[in-house]
Amino acid sequence: MMEWALQITQGVLMVALVPTLVRVVKGPSLPDRVIAVDMAASIVVAIILVHCLETGSFYYLTAATVVALVAFLGTVSLALYMRRGGAS
């Protein structure tokens, strides 16, 4: 039962990744694209964590942590850019 739920969760997350990547490509402005990249990174982290639960192998937790930190730094960089009067 648990394996079935984890596989459905992975499928839903992968489907959710598609419109997010469309927003990255077609975003009308830089902030929209950065937010979409942050959302995509969050979805990728969730996919990695579900995979770890599914396989029982936690080797990819470091990769999930790195992806989350890079996404956070991207968001902070955008906030600093916008604060200094960057493109809106």
Structure description:
With 88 residues, the chain is an all-alpha fold. The protein has one domain (2-83). It is 84% helix and 0% strand. The chain contains 3 helices and no strands. The protein has helices at residues 2-26, 30-55, 61-83.
Short summary:
With 88 residues, the protein is mostly helical. It has three helices and no strands.
Strand content: under 5%
Largest sheet: none
SSE string: HHH
- Low-pLDDT ranges: none
Main features:
88 residues; 3 helices; mainly alpha
Structural topology:
Blueprint: H1 2-26, H2 30-55, H3 61-83
Helix pairs in contact: 1-2, 2-3
